[in-house]
Amino acid sequence: MSKRIAFQGEPGAYSHQACLETYPELEALPCSTFEDAIAAVRDGKAELAMLPVENSTFGRVADIHHLLPDSGLHIIAEAFVRVQISLLALPGVRLDQVESAMSHTMLLGQCRAFLERHDIHRVTGADTAGSARHVAEAGQPEMAALASSLAGEIYGLDVLAEGIEDEGNNTTRFLVMAREPDFSRRGDNGMMTTFVFEVRNIPAALYKAMGGFATNGVNMTKLESYMVGGSFTATQFYADIEGHPDDPEVARALDELDYFTSDITILGVYPADPRRH
C-alpha cells in the first residue's frame, strides 16, 4: 500500500495542492475535519498530515493552535503555498454568462474587485473544492466556483480566469505533522523550533520570559496567546523561533523561559521552508 498524507477538505482543496506540491510521491488522503486528519496519522492510516496554520491575508486558521498541543503528533516540516484563485465553470461557458460564484467566504472576500467588475453575485459555500464539485453536479451554466485550478481538473470544469485574487502575494503556511519527532539538522535555510508554554502567575512574567530571547539574539517570528480550559486567567502561548534547541543561544533562551513558565512543550523542530524568506 502506498504511503499517505492526510489533509482536511475535499479533493482539489488548497491543502490537497499543498500535499501534491510538497510530497508528490505520497497519496493524498482527504479528511472531513482537522481532527480526522490528525487521527489518520495517529492511527497509522497516514504517515503525515498537512495542516494550514496561517494565511498572509486572513491571519491564523481557527482551531489549529488548540489542536496541536494535544494531537500527539510532531511538526517535522513547514510548507508555504501560493493561493491562486481561479473562476471555474462548466465546459463551454463564457465569462459573460456567469451570474454567480460560489466558494468559501474567505475566498469570496479575496476576489471582491474581480467579482464586482464582472457583476458576479457571491454565494457562500462550505469550502472551495466542495463548491467546485457542486457547480459540476448542478449543471447550471450561470453558476461558477472560486477554487484552485486543481479543483477544476478534478471536477471537469473550465478555468475562465485565474489569479483573480485582490492580493497578489496571498500565501498559506502549512505544518507537516508526523507520529515521531525529528530533531536532526536538515535543509539549507536554517531550522525552526515551535513550542507552547504557560507563564507563571507572577507580575510581568511574559515580559521576563521573553527577555531571554532578546538578550541571546534569538529571532521570534511568531507569538500568539489563547485561553485554555475556558479560563480567563490561564493563558497559553504559541511561539515560533529561528534556530535549533541545541544552538547555544537558543538553549540559553529556553532555559530562561523555563524559569518563568509552568509548562513548556516543544511541538517540533524542522527546516525553514525556502519560501519563508
TrEMBL record:
Name of the molecule in the record: prephenate dehydratase
Any GO MF annotation of the entry: prephenate dehydratase activity
Pfam family, one: PDT
GO CC list: cytoplasm
Membrane-crossing residue ranges in chain numbering: none
EC number: 4.2.1.51
Keyword Transmembrane in record: no
Keyword presence, Lyase: yes
Annotated ranges, domain ACT: 194-271
InterPro entries, per database record: ACT-like_dom_sf, ACT_dom, Preph_deHydtase, Preph_deHydtase_CS
Keywords: Amino-acid biosynthesis, Aromatic amino acid biosynthesis, Lyase, Phenylalanine biosynthesis
Entry superkingdom: Bacteria
Organism phylogeny: Bacteria, Pseudomonadati, Pseudomonadota, Alphaproteobacteria, Rhodobacterales
Pathway recorded for this protein: Amino-acid biosynthesis; L-phenylalanine biosynthesis; phenylpyruvate from prephenate: step 1/1
